[in-house]
Design a protein that fits this description.
By secondary structure, the chain is an alpha/beta fold. The chain has helices spanning about 20-25, 30-40, 50-60, 70-90, 110, 125-135, 155, 190-205, 245, 265-275, 275-280, and strands at about 95-100, 120-125, 140-145, 175-180, 210-215, 255-260, 285-290. The protein is built from eleven helices and seven strands. The structure holds S-adenosylmethionine (SAM).
């Protein structure tokens, strides 16, 4: 249902923000950016068809988050990067599966549906039950699955194709998978981030991609300085100290693309980031696109 309105649909109850725990409640911030950011920053407009309606059901006062310009711009920028990167992937693999890890109430499938691909939205159980009420998936091509990324085995629980099958004689290679992980890794502990990357690397069929945003390692422990997060109890636990943080976790991981949100903020920030990389890591806020080497290096390793 794509409705452009600020009022909650009559059949839905307004869900109070306090119904969500600290980290899940952060889903409201990118939702607000996608709902209202287009008006303020039309040059980065994302054209989200669902965000305003969903927000009206959850947090009618969410317009206040628009004043956190840094975060709103980051969300609109990352949506643009996502559309470009994932758009290319699904143009090359129109039947492949897409996965939105830590999906919150975002709906990138509205832009990435080829008519033949499949999509899985995955988040903690409390978010998935909210999602089931407000933004139900439509099986069989679009599914929602409750999963905790801190628990190993999420690849199998999501029902994703096992890359290992590609090595069995007579078996057709599995389709590659596209994974999106926006606004999630910074809330996990470093060993948990490493484990998520390892599971992707160990399981993904050749050609799969993993797109994640990240904050600088300087931001760890400082969520209170982000106006939209200041009153939540959510905290940043992980930030990238170097691009190698993404690939060190597993020998199969490859860094395919690097993006910094400094690209929308002008030359001075780009120069500052380039000069301060040893201190602040790859970017104050950025995105990494990871791929996997063709060979599978775990389990039945060569
Ligand atoms: C800032 S929100 C981002 C939501 C969405 N990706 C977006 O861009 O609108 C962070 C999301 O990560 C989810 N999340 C955090 N820790 C998680 C975990 N261990 N397993 C699954 N999801 C998690 C939260 O529940 C929340 O929905």
């Amino acid at each position: 249902m794509n409705v452009h309105t600020d009022a909650p649909p009559r059949e839905l109850t307004v869900v109070p923000r306090c119904a969500l725990h600290a980290v899940p409640s952060t889903l409201l911030i990118p939702l607000a950016a996608r709902a209202w950011g287009d008006e303020r920053y039309p040059w980065l407009a994302c054209g989200d068809q669902d965000a305003r309606r969903l927000l009206a059901c959850l947090e009618p006062g969410a317009r206040a988050w628009l004043d956190d310009a840094w975060v709103v711009l980051n969300v609109l920028w990352r949506t643009r990067v996502l559309k470009e990167v994932a758009g290319r992937f699904f143009a090359a693999h129109p039947h492949a599966a897409g996965v939105n890890l830590g999906c919150g109430l975002s709906n990138p499938f509205q832009w990435l549906d080829t008519g033949r691909n499949t999509w899985v939205d995955a988040d903690l159980p409390e978010v998935m039950s909210l999602r089931h009420t407000l933004l139900p998936a439509r099986p069989p091509r679009w599914r929602g699955v409750a999963v905790d990324l801190r628990t190993p085995g999420w690849w199998r629980r999501l029902g994703l194709p096992a890359g290992r099958a590609a090595r069995r004689p007579g078996k057709r290679p599995a389709e590659p998978v596209f994974l999106l992980c926006e606004g999630v890794l910074m809330y996990l502990r470093p060993p948990q981030v490493r484990a998520v990357l390892q599971e992707f690397a160990a399981q993904a069929p050749p050609g799969s991609q993993f797109l994640a945003d990240f904050i600088s390692c300087l931001g760890v422990g400082h969520a209170r300085w982000v106006p939209s997060l200041a009153h939540s109890r959510a905290q940043f636990h992980w930030g990238a100290g170097g691009w190698s943080d993404f690939t060190d976790a597993h020998p199969r991981l490859r860094l395919l693309e690097r993006h910094s949100a400094a690209e929308i903020r002008g030359l001075w920030l780009r120069l500052m980031e380039a000069g301060c990389e040893p201190l602040l890591g790859p970017a104050l806020y950025g995105m990494a696109l990871l791929g996997v080497a063709d060979a599978l290096l775990t389990g039945d390793a060569t």
